[in-house]
Design goal:
single chain
Length: 78
């Protein structure tokens, strides 16, 4: 996992692809202020805390956020 510097975006790298997600801190703050989490939410997390942006079929060897909205990476393909 690799978070952008501002904490608004997250890259989750898997074996054959990676996902780009956007974090929704307002939803998380609102949820915690309004109610207690259910047992399932405590175990699994809040799915609505993230918005799916895209899936990429690349294998990341290394990567880095160069700005809050630009993730650069090196893939493992030759």
């Amino acid at each position: 996992m690799c978070w952008s510097d501002d904490g608004n975006f997250l890259v989750i790298a898997l074996e054959e692809s990676f996902y780009l997600l956007q974090y929704n801190p307002a939803f998380v703050t609102k949820t915690f202020a309004e109610r207690e989490l259910t047992d399932e939410e405590q175990e699994e997390g809040l799915e609505e805390a993230f918005t799916f942006i895209d899936e990429y079929t690349e294998v990341i060897a290394s990567g880095h956020w160069v700005s809050n909205e630009c993730f650069v990476f090196i893939n493992t393909r030759g």
